[in-house]
# Entry
Amino acid sequence: MKAKAGLNREILATGWGTLRRMLEYKALRVIAVDPRHTSQTCAACGHVDARSRRARAFECVACGHADHADLNAARNIRRRGLALLHGEERSVLPTPVTRETDRRLAA
Ligand SMILES: [Zn+2]
# Structure
């Protein structure tokens, strides 16, 4: 069982490494952000609380903001990426996103 857990960990680590290499090859630029608490942070008010996350739904216990949990987390990740990008270089365009992604994240 322990060996299987180690194997699963190795597969996961390799998978993410491969995905990152593919992204870096294809994308104009890849910005890695700290993912901690992105699923527990309210994209509307910034409040961090594990109780706001309920399965696929997010409802902020501080301000009542409600959204799909994945979209709420995506907005937080996008904000962190843009903050890193703008903090480092204002002249570089962000990695392109599809119109659908951009429309949903801008909402
Ligand atoms: Zn909130």
